[in-house]
Amino acid sequence: MALKSTIFKAALAVADIDHGYYADHALTLARHPSETDERMMIRLVALALNAHKLQDVCNGDGTLAFGAGLSNVDEPDVWLRDFTGETKLWIEVGQPEDKPVIKACGKADEVIVYCFNHAAEIWWRGIENKLTRPQNLQVYRVPTEASQALAALAQRSMQLQATIQENTLTLGDGTHSIDVELLRWK
């Protein structure tokens, strides 16, 4: 019998000072049985970091949501679509293979990969030359210490505040907070 996804609810208050975006998001995260809390929280961080694009790219008339992720490799972990259904932003989390990333670059205006964990540098060295061509691709490294600390915030019901200032995200639950300063690789 197949294991079912675990459902997490998050009330996320985003204060993106860098982009002048302030909004509350009621989110439902389905964590696949093979997904860790760390990876799930990186998906949430990716959504928070790009929430301002709802206004900047779609003028407030779009949808920013979690994709099927690990359940369907043909869908992104997070996506932004405008009112016509066109994919404006495709976000992958982890260390994806080059072919799906290149394919995603053809389907979306912008593709972002957020890689994390101790093996990220090895993954990047092996894939970097294969990802030089797509101009609409960005690759970021989430520091291991920060990504592991994010896992501790994972609860079935979460009240989180995300503040983005000077390219640093601070994610907190009222008791604990974690600073995430991304390293841009591409």
TrEMBL record:
It comes from Variovorax beijingensis. Transmembrane segments: none annotated. This is YaeQ family protein. InterPro entries: Restrct_endonuc-II-like, YaeQ, YaeQ_sf.
